[in-house]
Amino acid sequence: MAGKIETRLAELGITLPQPAAPVANYVPFVTTGSLVVVSGQVPVRDGKVAYSGKLGDTVNQETGQQAAQLCLVNVLAQLRAALGDLDRVTRVVRLGGFIACTPDFTAHAPVMNGASDLAVAVFGEAGRHARSTIGVPSLPMDAAVEVEGMFEFA
Fold first, then answer.
1. Could you tell me if 90 and 153 are in contact, meaning their C-beta atoms sit under 8 angstroms apart?
2. Where is the Endoribonuclease L-PSP/chorismate mutase-like domain positioned along the sequence (predicted)?
3. CA atoms of 122 and 6, how far apart (whole Å)
4. Would you say residue 23 has pLDDT above 90?
5. Half-sphere exposure of residue 71, counting CA atoms within 13 Å on the CB side?
6. Residue 148: exposed, middle, or buried by beta-carbon count in 10 A (0-12, 13-18, 19+)?
7. Disulfide check for 115: which of 41, 72, 123, 149 has CB 3.0–4.6 Å away?
8. Domains of the chain with bracketed CATH
9. pTM, to two decimals
10. For 46-90, how does the pLDDT look when each residue is reduced to its tens digit (9 = 90+)?
């Protein structure tokens, strides 16, 4: 039987994928005490980067939001692998977003809202979190966005 969070994801039309394997010398998540830290996830779908390029150049703001949302879906897949059950999450503590963009692009926050809005839609008030959003010149595999997260669990 699906838990509350898995049911909510289904209501949103989201199916979590198999978590992606790391592409370098790191682990996909670390659990310490009552926290899980999930490594940065790019917008991969079916084994391929679904959103590539730079915001302010080949990627518009709306597409960037969709990329950020897909990144969070991949973060949640890693989180489920870490905890076994997303209902164990008691709080989304922090999300970090990296936006590949041109030097003059300044709409980082609205792009990252794609991930933040989904966190709140999935976890309700427990999904409200601290956040940093940073513009960068490039990301692995030419991804447009990368999202990492820290979660409290019971």
1. yes
2. 6-145
3. 9
4. no
5. 33
6. buried
7. 72
8. 4-153 (3.30.1330.40)
9. 0.97
10. 999 999 999 999 999 999 999 999 999 999 999 999 999 999 999
